[in-house]
Amino acid sequence: MNLKVKRFDKSLDLPGYEEGSACFDLDCRVSTIINPKEVKLVPLNIAVKVPQGYALLIFVRSSTPIKKGLMSANSVGIIDPFYCGERDEVVIEFFNFTDKVVAVEKGEKLAQGMLIKCEPVEWQEVEKMGEGGVGGYNT
């Protein structure tokens, strides 16, 4: 798939994608310090025109929590097709879950993106589902 992308800092590479991979790596655009138990937005150097019918999901890379002590504060970032303007840089909300200050360096690959297909939703409300169900957490 061909995606329209704008880099905010051209000294950093375009997102890294290896053929056959589910995700592409994203560079942190700035160096910053994240204090213990702090949430901080870190820009990822791109604005992307996500095609209609898709969403771009932003995750931490699997090694980021172990190597840096960071996780995504909101679990997963969701970039909709309309978030694609000149000021719409993709960011990640990092949470420092350690008791130490964490340094993020410009150019570090701590996040990754994945495009997923989205289907429009129409609700069909019913009075009964017609299935017993498994109960889940209900008692």
Please describe the structure with a list of short key phrases separated by commas or semicolons:
mainly beta; Deoxyuridine 5'-Triphosphate Nucleotidohydrolase, Chain A; 3-stranded antiparallel β-sheet; globular; 4-stranded antiparallel β-sheet; 139 residues
Folded structure, characterized:
- The protein is mostly beta strands and 139 residues long.
- It has a single domain (4-117), classed as Deoxyuridine triphosphatase (dUTPase) (Deoxyuridine 5'-Triphosphate Nucleotidohydrolase, Chain A).
- 4% of the residues lie in helices and 37% in strands.
- The chain contains one helix and eleven strands, in the order E-E-E-E-E-E-H-E-E-E-E-E.
- The strands form four sheets. A four-stranded antiparallel beta sheet has the order 2-11-6-8, with no helix packed on it.
- The longest helix is centred in the middle third of the chain and has 5 residues, at 64-68.
- The chain is globular.
- The N and C termini lie far apart (46 Å).
